[in-house]
Automatic annotation (TrEMBL), chain A:
Residues 88-279 form the ABC transmembrane type-1 domain. This is Carbohydrate ABC transporter membrane protein 2 (CUT1 family). It comes from Nonomuraea polychroma. The keyword Transport applies. It is a multi-pass membrane protein.
UniProtKB/TrEMBL annotation, chain B:
One of its GO terms (cellular component) is plasma membrane. Its main location: membrane. Keywords: Cell membrane, Membrane, Transmembrane, Transmembrane helix, Transport. It is a multi-pass membrane protein. This is Carbohydrate ABC transporter membrane protein 1 (CUT1 family). It comes from Nonomuraea polychroma. PROSITE patterns: ABC_TM1 (PS50928). It comes from the Bacteria. Belongs to the binding-protein-dependent transport system permease family.
Amino acid sequence: MTTVATVRDTEMIDDQVAVRHRSVTPSLLYGALVLCALLTMLPFVWVISGSLRSLDEIRSDPGAWLPHHITLDNFTRLFATEGFGGFMANSIVVAIIVVAGNIVAASAAGYALAKLDFAGKRLAFGAVMAAMMVPFTAVFVTQFVITVDLGLADTLTGIALPGVAMPMSVFIMRQYAMSIPGDLLEAARIDGAGEFRIFFRIFLPLAGPAVATITIMSFLTSWNNFIWPLIVAQSMSSYTLPVGLAATSQAASHVTDYGLQLAGAIVVMLPVLVLFLFLQRYFVQGIAGTGMR
Amino acid sequence: MTTTVVPRAARTARRSRGSRRTAVAWLFLAPFALVFLLYTAIPTVAALGFSLTDLRGTDLRNPFAVDFTGLENYLRLFQDEIFLRDILNTALFVAVGVPLTMGIGFALALVLNAGIRRLRGMFRVVFFAPVVTNVVAVALIWQYAFNANGTVNKVLGTVGFAGPNWLDDPNLAMPVVILLGVWRNFGTAMVLFLAGLQAIPEDVYEAASIDGAGRWRQLRHITLPLLLPTTLMVSVLLTVFYLQVFDEPYLLTNGGPLGSTESVALYTYHQFGSGEFGMSSAASFVMLVLVMLVSIVQFRLLRPRA
């Protein structure tokens, strides 16, 4: 948790470039880095080149590096596949519930934990910290039973609800709220503004960067989440994209349609990768700031 | 504790103001607290309770059919060869995955920090991209690439090796599964190490080089000791993460071939899948205890010697 203060803005990493090891041969370092970068990118190259090959081409030569004839056939087949549009819509709905819930729950809780004095504050913050350490696999059985009891099994609400209160979001919000000067809020308090007014009129407008961070982090978590939707979704109508993709690929494993699978993989990965390219600073900041994934 | 005498009326006014403040604060906390209670606090306590019963999936409609069985589930677990094998598999995952992930992350952070100015942003994007990609999607790519006729074997073929059927070989499946885990996580380690390196004040190095310390000595006597808190955090984080490994083995092999990649988390899931909720909860509690033990031991071992 010590990194929180140091990585307020990860651009620091860019700007304070060390002059310390000037003597290291730069070309050697660049060479090593480029090699590592290429190795890291290999799976992405595989998925793009594979998805652009026709079914016949994949069958005759499954492992080829590059397509002979580039075709979008796999993507057209994918979107024509039964249920696929539904998986996507489900993923989007779940992500919207999770992100909206995180913004509401975490900004309010983070504000209270940082800026309000009240009985039980230490206990509440301790609970948030402890919650980050409970392994999901230790509680999913009971979470499932509760979801069934609430009548939310096999519903999108049931899939989204546990993700609405991410302790990590509360933690990020609290850290951010701590950095906002108390005088500002105190002045408003003296002028007679109530806590809710202060929260909406003063705190939230200032909390933009933190809200952006938790929006991205919770979207990422929700979009990529796999085990929980796998457990809760019992019929195809409530599958999210990852569950739907895994199910289709396992059902068809005896006649593996790699073209379809790789096209599906791209469709699942693309929204997050595009978002990441534009907002990578926030992603990195969120992860470096909390030490959580 | 104030010792000045406060008139009774003012005292009660203050107290009621205090309780009003508390009420308002808890209103702010309410949305989070409700979901937290429902999905973290209650399930954790209930999981311990479940683990002491013979609860089965079919009992959910009829709670009175459930018997309290005490520690029986735990005794059965530790006589179950499959569970013991899965603990070994998980330990292997941790023992290989954690050092590899940390080593790669640390090396890249050092290099990026050591004066790579141009393209730094690009490298960071590239190395971090695996962290944000969807594991289901990546597992499909891995299956495609490590298939008997897949791209990896194609590459091996060009240099004259006949590649094996990786994911169907009990000896080779685990390395491939671990490789996926390492690929997905070294970016996180790198970012955390970069942050840690940036926190070391520049003048420490300047003083050392004035005293004639070379780069190697600086690394050994400045960077590594000052990076200890970061190293501790990253190692605990990764150990706890790999202890719970589920997605990678589930998607690549579903624990096979012959159970060679089945982790404790996957055991928990398989027990759950066959309706043995009591056994599943017991196994998950063993994991919870392991996670806690590892954190405590690592904090003890790596506590900075001041």
